[in-house]
Sequence to fold (269 residues):
Amino acid sequence: MYEKIKETAEWLRNRMPNAPKTAIVLGTGLGQLAERIEKLLCIPYSEIPNFPVSTVEGHAGQLIFGRLGGVDVMAMEGRFHYYEGYTMQQVTFPVRVMYELGIKTLFVSNAAGGTNPGFKIGDLMIITDHINYMPENPLHGPNVPPGPRFPDMSEAYSLDLIAKADEIAAKHGIKVQHGVYLATQGPTFETPSEYRMFARWGADAVGMSTVPEVIVANHCGIKVFGMSIITDLGGTDIPEKVTHEEVQKAAQAVQPLMATIMEEMVKTV
Ligand code: HPA
Fold:
């Protein structure tokens, strides 16, 4: 795999119009941030050697090189989810390539179901830590250099970046929650009992992404900052139906606030 990572990085390096140190994974909730990026080059994933091939129609995805608030960035518009059938190595391949290209900081976002009873739909949550409840760890298998075999995860989400985000949110009068993000394999949303169980485990929000990328970023020594949009609530005594459409709608509404925080965050690193 290491050879493939090197090969893809080399291919991109020969085409990159800039040399970003910052990367952004534009998950649910950060689509609008893509519009704020001054684009220098967009490459569909299908054209990038060794990149996972998307199987879902209308979910093609592309890699963007450009500037956000005057800062050079690389952004993934669309990510690979484990539930789609990709292996963990495929899901995290782009992060490995980012490291080879010189990325030092990674910004991630997602939509998540709130399990913290104090949360409301539309809340923004700064991810302070995670629980990997996916069936596999992306580092399973031969160790990929230069990361250690047994990487530390005591600060998977940079405390320094969390403090900066708090300052930015306060400056703009944007209310943010803090919490632990638990990742499941999906694609099912949780049963009421599962939501309750996750809450007892210490999770504040549940989703189906992000954790693999964050583990690999930490393995590579890339600093991470992440945010979730709370799009639905589970684990209360009254079971509530969750639909993909509702999740999209709730995420849409608070997108501009998350985009504002992320845009300013990029300027601070
Ligand atoms: N559970 C899992 N993933 C999700 C949820 C949820 O409630 N909401 C958005 N993504």
Observations:
- The mean pLDDT is 92.
- The pocket of hypoxanthine is lined by residues 111-113, 189-190, 206-208, 231-232, 234, 242, 247 (CB under 6 Å).
- The two ends are 30 Å apart (CA to CA).
